Amino acid sequence: MLSYDVIIVGAGGAGMMAALNASEDKSLKVACLSKIFPTRSHTGAAQGGINAAMGYRDENDSPESHFRDTVKGSDFLADQDAVEFFTSNMPKVISELDYFGVPFSRDENGNIAQRPFGGASSPRTCYSADKTGHVILHALYEQCLKNGVKFHNDWHLLSISVNEGKFEGIVTMDIRSGEIHSIQAKSVVIATGGFGRVYWSRTTNAINMTGDGTAACFEAGIPLKDPEFVQFHPTGLASTGVLLSEACRGEGGYLINKDGERFMARYAPGKMELGPRDLVSRAIETEIKEGRGFGEGMGSYVLMDLRHLGEKKIMERLPQVRELAMEFEGVDLIKEPVPIRPSCHYTMGGIHVSDYRTCSTPIEGIHAAGECCSVSIHGANRLGGNSVADVVLFGKYAGIGARESAKKRGFSSIEKLMAEATEWTEKFKTIREKTNGINMFKIRDELAETMWNHVGIFRTEAEMEVAYEKVSRLIEDYEFATIGDSSERYNMAFLNYVEIGNILKLAKAIALGALNRKESRGSHARADYPERDDNNFLKHTLIYKDGDQYRLEYSPVKITKYQPEERKY
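The structure corresponding to this sequence follows.
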């Protein structure tokens, strides 16, 4: 059995930042486990940039302005003590990344370049062309190697072992060999990313974004916080959902309907295309619903026009975006507008983090960082540029928190951990031998269609009740699923099976939280409750899993400086 002082699950921006900071103490044995190669993690899909009030482009910008913008963007559901901690520490973290060798784009004075992003009062998004996440991943991986972090690549998290409220270790699979391993550890950082694949066929998320760590924590007894808040990015490519960065609008792109009209003047006259994502997504869907879009049904779209920016600017600042449009839509955006439609992009909710300074959860020894969890700094809607900032900043503090946990805690007993590993070994054997049952991909595809149609950009009680019942039935069907692959090594079908189980659990929580939040706030837009209701719902949803039963509770939002007001742009 393997054993480490600190184990990090996930090797994206949050995971590697956590590993790097945990490994600063050379007396600790630190490992990072990832189901793909670290530099292929989903942080690499973050194109547009990372927010910090550096003041290079606007000397009047400040962490306080970033704080205010983030709280307003969250529709006042963010915990303000956590947001202030986040915005005041971000400039330091950007300097650290710069020191690590991240090749940021530069302005004419040699300072890190900054661009405007949606919902921000100043251009504070630092960037490296449109490959910001990609270059941050590579720099962090180099630093982790330098610090001696042990990487287990192509290893998949199966479960987290908790005994009498204390963390014992994790059960994992080595994908290459098919062996099930138990790993004992004093502390863990869960940094497994979001779970946008709940909306399987209409998401900007990579195919492996299935909420593995979030679901494992949920099973282990940690509640999900605010799972109903799912962000839909306004500019997914029409036919695939692949992301076109907010940098397109940050650099001055226009959104156009079939009448050739810049329709954002109707919805956010002050900010136009740089309104927050939830507002812009709803505007696009409204244009389509009211017949001002192109195409029909799931093939409907509006256009994003960047031609006026000129070839030089596009090639200098948006080269990857152009490449994606050409590859997936057959459109060269230097010469013509590109068809776009909102696509599930980000999960504001996730594992309940109870202390933002250490990223600890209610279970001793378990920490979490990044999109898999809710600190909560994004509340009901995340601003563009705050996600990469979130992963590196809270990844850092999760690593420090786990490092301190490991120093305080000894290894726990391993009886339950070993029993869980045996259970998984038996499960793997049984499912490989099963020949009759329901095709697991039919379950996955029905889930995606159900969630997009009934718990999507616009929501109603009747539709969400349908979704809740359907998802509950699909969870029952899952018990009879077959994978159609009897191999032991590289059994990707088994991994798909585990991932589908995870997104089913999380989809049910999304539907339950959304059904019970009888208001519209941020990304959660209800036609039957169109107004925000601070009297009854200025609070966080907490959903617990007790066996097969889901239990709903609420907790207060922390308000320090900014009282809720109507959110206008």
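The first helix runs from residue 13 to 22.
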